[in-house]
TrEMBL record:
It comes from Tetranychus urticae (Two-spotted spider mite). InterPro entries: Acyl-CoA_DS, FA_desaturase_dom, FADS-1_CS. GO terms for molecular function: iron ion binding; stearoyl-CoA 9-desaturase activity. This is Fatty acid desaturase domain-containing protein. The histidine box domains are involved in binding the catalytic metal ions. It is found in: Membrane. GO terms for cellular component: endoplasmic reticulum membrane. PROSITE patterns: FATTY_ACID_DESATUR_1. The keyword Transmembrane applies. Residues 47-249 form the Fatty acid desaturase domain. Belongs to the fatty acid desaturase type 1 family. It is a multi-pass membrane protein. It comes from the Eukaryota. The chain crosses the membrane at residues 12-33, 45-66, 160-180, 186-207.
């Protein structure tokens, strides 16, 4: 029997290894920021590109492809996206999708892993450093994840995640500047790994926190997820969050196509090349009707 929320006692406690981990990587990123003033121009560009490519692995891969099935991808694209998602160091695809699906199914309830009702800090990063509410585990039983592990790419990445993440997320990004333009190895490590990692984490975290607290609700004013053009530009199109929670099946996560949406642009290119197909969208009439029925009227 699955208990109701009120039947479950919850006393949050800190996960000290995670607390220490986040303290360490943030201190290292501050040092990386200091060292970035001494880094070569090519290294700065590399940090930016690593953030973008790792972000695509999350937005186009873990989020729109594997979490929502908003489009389908052929094997070469799935392998490429899995490699980029590994580069992001945001856990393996299966775990990422598992938490995201339960977030949508039970958004802003005790079963939501990063429940925004518990405050900005909790939804931003706190949910990773405290024990999750028991309802998260209980409600996971109600969601089907079989499609994820039926994909050999997801299964392989999960099986070999530790060596893959060390290689793709740490070693290769650090060695690129060191090998190709003789960047100092310490500068390369602290900028291309630590600084890049922390920046990309906080961009992703803002979708859980900022996008559930600040912005507009043109599609559904009864949910807390918000649209923010600034966050959409920063987070590669993921900031149209009120739209996304209203129409999670849309591969574009917005009604504007690739405008202000780098991830949609990437998926459209892949579709043009025949690597992505069955792109799901919402028709304009349905969107307009939903705006009239439940959206905030914005002048």
């Amino acid at each position: 029997m699955i208990k109701s929320d009120k039947e479950v006692n919850y006393k949050p406690s800190l996960i000290w290894p995670m607390v220490l981990f986040f303290v360490f990587i943030h201190l290292a990123s501050f040092y990386g920021f200091y060292l970035s003033f001494y880094a070569k121009t090519q290294t700065h560009l590399t940090v930016y590109l690593l953030i973008v490519f790792g972000g695509l692995g999350v937005t186009a891969g873990a989020h729109r492809l594997w979490s929502h099935g908003a489009y389908k991808a052929k094997l070469p694209l799935r392998i490429f996206l899995a490699a980029l998602q590994t580069l992001s160091l945001q856990r393996d695809i299966y775990e990422w999708c598992r938490d995201h699906r339960i977030h949508h199914k039970f958004c802003e309830t005790d079963a939501d892993p990063h429940d925004a009702r518990r405050g900005f800090f909790y939804s931003h990063i706190g949910w990773l450093i405290v024990q999750k509410h028991p309802m998260v585990s209980i409600r996971r039983q109600q969601i089907d994840y079989s499609d994820l592990l039926s994909d050999p790419v997801v299964r392989y990445q999960r099986t070999f995640y530790i060596p893959l993440v060390i290689l793709l997320g740490v070693v290769i990004p650090t060695l690129i500047p060191y090998y190709f333009w003789s960047e100092d190895l310490i500068i390369s490590l602290f900028t291309c790994f630590f600084l890049r990692y922390v920046i990309s984490l906080h961009i992703a975290f803002c979708i859980n926190s900022v996008a559930h607290m600040y912005g507009q609700r043109p599609y559904d004013k009864h949910i807390n997820s918000r649209d923010s053009l600034g966050l959409a530009l920063t987070a590669m199109g993921e900031g149209f969050h009120n739209y996304h929670h209203t129409f999670p099946q849309d591969y574009s996560t917005s009604e504007w196509g690739w405008k202000f949406n780098l991830t949609t642009f990437f998926i459209d290119i892949c579709a043009y090349l025949g690597l992505a197909y069955n792109l799901k969208t919402m028709d304009k009439q349905t969107i307009a009707a939903r705006k009239l029925r439940s959206g905030d009227k914005i002048n």
